[in-house]
Amino acid sequence: MRGSVFIIEDDRESADLLAAGVKRHGFDVEVQLNPEEAFARVLQSDFDVVLTDLLMPGLSGLELCDRLAANRPDLPVVVVTGHATVDSAVAAIRAGAYDFVTKPIDAQALALVLERAVRHRLLREEVKRLRRVLQHTSAVDDVVGESPALRRVYDLIDRVADTDATVLITGESGTGKEMAARALHARSRRAHGPFVAVNCAAMPEALLESELFGHARGAFTDARVTRSGLFVRADGGTLFLDEIGELPLGLQPKLLRALQERKVRPVGSDQEIPFNARIIAATNVDVEQQVKSGRFREDLYYRLNVIALEMPPLRSRGKDVLLLAQRFVQQFAARRGKNVVGLSPAAAERLLTYHWPGNIRELHNCIERAVALTSFEQITVEDLPEKIRNYRGWQMLTSRAGMQELVPMAELERRYILHVLEVVGGSRTLAARTLGMDRKTLYRRLEMYGVNADGTPRKHATSA
User: Fold this and answer.
1) Can you give the pLDDT at residue 454?
2) pTM for the predicted model, two decimal places
3) Residue 437 forms beta bridges with which residues?
4) How far apart are CA 52 and CA 37, in angstroms?
5) Number of folded domains in the chain?
């Protein structure tokens, strides 16, 4: 079923015609002829949408909208009117209606309106549920989500957090690799020690060497005092080496020796200093490819990649985008002192549709902007950036599309297959079943599109 529809229509013949048409489009239907009894029934039941006539004796459709808006604001109401005037439409919306349709009714158009209304209600309920989930999420868990892809991350973090094994976290830019590293640290027996982070791509080689290993007094022009490096400063805690794939080739053997010997030699010194820090590294580049091309030492790669933790892209995490968005709303609203409590269903739908090439970092920026701009308690579609408001994704192009929007059938198929993979969380079996093809055929398509089996782009692959 596509949802449950409660039809309120005082004329039996009209009610039966409406019910038959709605049922044909896959909705579950219940009919009530008496508006007063219908209102009492709605208060006791859990329908997805109410479809009511506008003109009825005793209790009109507009009065019914008023009552439902006051008592069941979560329930969308669609009004049927035989008076296709602007005034009646405006009155229905002002009375709390979600939408209206005019007689004679186009069955297909009505089905689309009801489908949107059901989706509106489900999204509203999902936003409420996710808000409740956040209330019970530990403050330590900056890695927020409940999708299967992220549950695998949680499971691995739980299993390896309390060991000293070196972890290599991989994933696209903006997927939360540092947050995962901090979660590993926070759940480990080193949690009371320091968490020290350094970006290996942000400094020239000489400065990075001094930063990591320290330097002796007089080692270079500005070395006026002896200074400990980050390995030593992270003693008893965790050292996080971000963007390790960009580590200069000249520093790689020195890092390898430090990891093997658990000692560092400061620049300009002949003394080695032991350290006791857990090493976590992260990268958004394909280090295996770097090894093949000679830009990264193979022995260092295996030394770092004792435990591999891959952070999934936001587009493969389903409704996690709403959970994250709700957390960001709370953070930015508190910071700005604004009474913004969440997302409107329409805004939530846009966030779910968008592809998020910048992942969590892009979502963070989007919500910060929306909280700053909004004038309401909920973020609306108009508060979102234009590229998100207007994103069309995989959606089928109709005959009303302009020539510049039309694409070949092969490209349309590619977009849809990748969309299905995203929706099912990367499950190849479920995707193949949904698409009506066997898994081998799906694998061949993905190989042709230059993507991995979960729908994520392969490194250095060109898209079709």
Assistant:
1) 47
2) 0.68
3) none
4) 13
5) 4
